[in-house]
Amino acid sequence: MIKYYAFVKVVELKSISKAAEALGYSQPGLSHILKAFERDLGFPLLIKKKNSIEPTENGRRLLPYCERLIEAEQLLNNEAETINTQLKGAIRIGTPNSMLLGFVSYLVNYFTKKYDSTDLTIVEDTLANVVKKLQNNSIDIAFITEAVSTNTKFQPLFEDTICLAVHKNNPLASYDRIPDSAMEEVPLISNTVGWDDITRIVTDTLPFKPNIKYYSASDFAALAMVQSDLGVYIISSLQKNMVPRDVVLKRFEKNYTRTVGVAAKSMNSLTSFQKAFIQETIEAFSDELMIPRKKQDR
C-alpha cells in the first residue's frame, strides 16, 4: 500500500522530498518506491516541472483510484480496531473505598459476566487522588462525587446519604435524627487526612470545631472503635453492610448527601468498550440493578 500513499502524497505536496518527510521515508527510498510502481504499471506517473512535481496524464487518471484504495484501507483498519476493541476491552477504573465496597465491585462483576473478554483493573485511592489519576491518564474511568468533578465528563448516578455510626448504647442512638448541636462534645473518630472526604462533608459545615479524638486509616478499624463505644464515626450509607454488631446508623437532621457518579477525562478519549461500560453503569442504576441504589430507596 505504501506505493499508493507515496504517489498521492507527492501529488498533494508537489515534492518528493516533502512527501518523503511526511511519510517518514528518505528521499531516495521514496523515489525507489515510485520508480518500482511505475515499472509495474508500464508507464510514468510523475513528471518534473520547473518548480514542482506534477502527475502525468496517466497519473491523473489513476490518482482517484489510488485515493480510494487508501480510503478503503483506512476504513478496514478502523473497523478492525473496533472489532478488536469490542473483543478485547481493557478498562482501568479508579474508585475510593466507600464506592468500591458499596457498588463498584458489584458493577464490575455484573459487567464481566456480560462481556466475556474483559480486562478490568480497579485502583482504590483517596477521592482526590482518583481525580488526579483520571487527569493524568493513569485510569480511564473514575467513580467520584460531583463536588470534585471539575474538568471531567461527569454523569450523576445517585444521591448518597451521609450517616453517623454510633454504639447502640450511646445516648445519640436514641435520636431519630442527629442534630448538629449533638456533635459538639461527642468524641469523633475521623479518617486520616486525604481519606476524610466523607467526614468533612459534615465537619466542614459545623459552626464549631468538632471533638476529633481518634484518627483511623481504615473504615473497619474506625467501626471497631465505635463498636467499643469509644466515639462516633461519620460514614456513607454505601458502607452500611460493613457495620458491625451493636452499631447503628443514624441520619442527620440536615440532609447531608453527596452526588455519586461516573466520570471520564473526555468521552472522545475513550474506546467504544470503555464508553459501553459507562453506558451499562448508567443503565444499571436507572433500572435499579445495583444493590446500593435499592437500599437507599427504601
Structural description of this entry:
This protein has helices spanning 2-13, 16-23, 27-41, 57-87, 97-114, 127-135, 197-203, 219-227, 272-286, 291-297, and strands spanning 46-48, 53-55, 89-95, 118-124, 141-145, 153-167, 188-191, 212-216, 232-236, 247-251, 257-264. The chain has 298 residues and is of the alpha/beta class. The chain folds into three domains: 2-84, Arc Repressor Mutant, subunit A (Orthogonal Bundle), CATH 1.10.10.10; 87-158 and 258-297, Periplasmic binding protein-like II (D-Maltodextrin-Binding Protein, domain 2); 160-257, D-Maltodextrin-Binding Protein, domain 2. Strands 3, 4, 5, 6, 7, 8, 9, 10 and 11 form a nine-stranded mixed sheet that branches. Strands 1-2 form a two-stranded antiparallel ribbon. Helix 2 (16-23) packs across helix 3. The protein is rod-shaped and about 95 Å long. The N and C termini lie far apart (63 Å).
Fill in the keyword field for this structure.
298 residues; alpha/beta; Arc Repressor Mutant, subunit A; D-Maltodextrin-Binding Protein, domain 2; 9-stranded mixed beta sheet; two-stranded antiparallel ribbon; 11 strands; rod-shaped
List the helices and strands and how they pair.
Layout: H1 2-13, H2 16-23, H3 27-41, E1 46-48, E2 53-55, H4 57-87, E3 89-95, H5 97-114, E4 118-124, H6 127-135, E5 141-145, E6 153-167, E7 188-191, H7 197-203, E8 212-216, H8 219-227, E9 232-236, E10 247-251, E11 257-264, H9 272-286, H10 291-297
Parallel strand pairs: 3-4, 3-5, 7-8, 7-9
Antiparallel strand pairs: 1-2, 5-11, 6-9, 6-10, 6-11
Helix pairs in contact: 1-2, 1-3, 1-4, 2-3
